[in-house]
Amino acid sequence: MSDEAGRRVSVLQDPLADREFDDWGAVPEMIEGESHTYGKLLNRNADGSSETGIWNCTPGTWRCHVTSDEFCHFLAGHCTYTSVEGEIIEVVPGTLAFFPKGWRGICKVSDTIRKVYMIR
Q1: What's the predicted TM-score (pTM) here?
Q2: What are the tens digits of pLDDT across the range 71-92?
Q3: For the chain, how big is the Rg over CA atoms in Å?
Q4: What is the largest CA-CA distance in the chain?
């Protein structure tokens, strides 16, 4: 769908039902297990300044370093994020979270997660 200036609008009607994802590979900073990611890019600015999409990650525990501000709406699964300061963020379906650039911690995915994200 596009507006009169030709700007494209990305629409996904049912992100929980969608099963057409690209393989985005293994998580590189694994501590335990073998988390694998897959997703769908809905939009990326030509200059790389922001992107949005759907991201899935299978169970495992890994080091997390957020390199750009990221807003997430978790749709499915269960995980915990523990910051280097010790703050624990429990994620269940429906959780909204904003991770600021520079956030560091550990992510433990216990049930495959699916989120809609926006990075800028």
Answers
A1: 0.88
A2: 999 999 999 999 999 999 999 9
A3: 15
A4: 50
